[in-house]
Design brief:
heterodimer; A: alpha+beta; Immunoglobulin-like; elongated; B: alpha+beta; Alpha-Beta Plaits; Ubiquitin-like (UB roll)
Amino acid sequence: MAENRKKEREAFGKVMTDWFELPGDLVLDLPKITLIGRQELSIENHRGIIECSTNRMRVNLARGYLEIQGKDLEIRSLCSEEIQFIGRIDQLLFFE
Amino acid sequence: MSNRIADQMGGMILIEISGAKPEKLINLLMSRGVLIQDVRQKENGIILKIRSSALASTRAIAEEQGLDVKILNRMGVPVVRKKLKRRIGLWGGALVVILLLYLATSFIWFIDIEGNEKISREEILQTARSCGFYVGAFQPNINRLEVEGDLLRLMPELAYAEIKISGVKANIKVVERVMASDDVQGPCDIVARCDGVIEEILLQEGQALVQKGDAVTQGQVLISGEILPIIQGEENEENETGDASLSDSEDQETEDILPEPIWVRARGVVKARVWYESYGECPLLQEERNKSGQEESSIQLCLPWGNWVLSGKEENPYADGVEEIQEYVFHTPWGELGWKKRTWQEEMVTQVEYSRAEALEIAKKRAREALLEKQGWTELPGDVQYRTISQASDVVVRVQAVIECVEDIAQAQQIEER
């Protein structure tokens, strides 16, 4: 029931942001992911680190988490607003 | 970029977090606003960089979470500052070395001279020294233009002087003046360079005033550059074949119109017998100073504040001794800087008694040497006649040396000078 309400609220929010042309990352608290080639990745609006290893990184998001698979991965900088990864990125997987 | 500068200024620490779930610590630090960098996984845990100021809070959180924090490295300005403080002697020494190096390169150490042919290097160096330009001179005290001007002023033989200083080496470039020839130009006489008796005269131009066998004195005109033309009347009289019809009135005209003399540059070779004299003496009893072989030396340190003896004696230890000083001193604006080596050699005074014959030989030798030195000869041009001028009772044997030779005594002299 609560899940449905949340989904409805999200759907309404999406319609409203589309209608008023508002940035989704601010209004809906969505992550903003920037990928530069396959060597550098930055994520804004994250919720912290779940797992940190050289082959796999998992980043907590407002809804679900993002899994980064690759080789020689490491976190270049980490603060509450933004997280930056470097290394060879092979896959980005979203999980809810 | 600004973050990187702030990191370096504040100092960074590389730490290793080991234990279960180190990600939890990262999230907690992040939530407290700690900037985390270069997070990498290692065998036992993770390695990350934080600012030095966040170390205490990191340790506290790690302790709460049951994780171990190990400092691997410290970086940034505070670490460098700490190292500098610990090695103050080293840095101070380096600074002193740099200062000394700078000071040492402020002096002239080498002087090269270029372009001199007739003037010796020593002569130029000596003159430059009197102008304040020498090995060991302090460069800021040298005014190149002034020294160049002084060199030209003190050495008229120089037409140009240029000083170039590069580092500790100086180069003096000179151009010698081409001096006017000493040869007499224009009409002149030939005069006697010294007294003598004419042996031979070879006339090339001019009028000979002397002949073989004449005794001449120094400065006497031998060949005149003034040639008096032969007057027609005189010529007729000399020839004794004069025209009997030449009237008295014509004679009168000839006397009135005296032709001008002809001025020429007299030339010729005038060989004369000349004498040169010199004198030599030798006392029968003579004091001689010989080195005994004993020697003492000392080394003195010269500083602008005074001189200190580093080794050896301070004063001459011998009653009779000669002193030799070797200086390695630089003249700085504050005074002398360097060291001096003083060497004293003992001398023994001995009385030497010569027989009259020995003294005569020595006196002759001295007279001969004096003759060579006086005339600037390398060897005598003829036989020397010696004449003893001292009495048999004299304690000093005195000898006069006379040499007779035949040589060209002709010397050109400008006619105006007569």
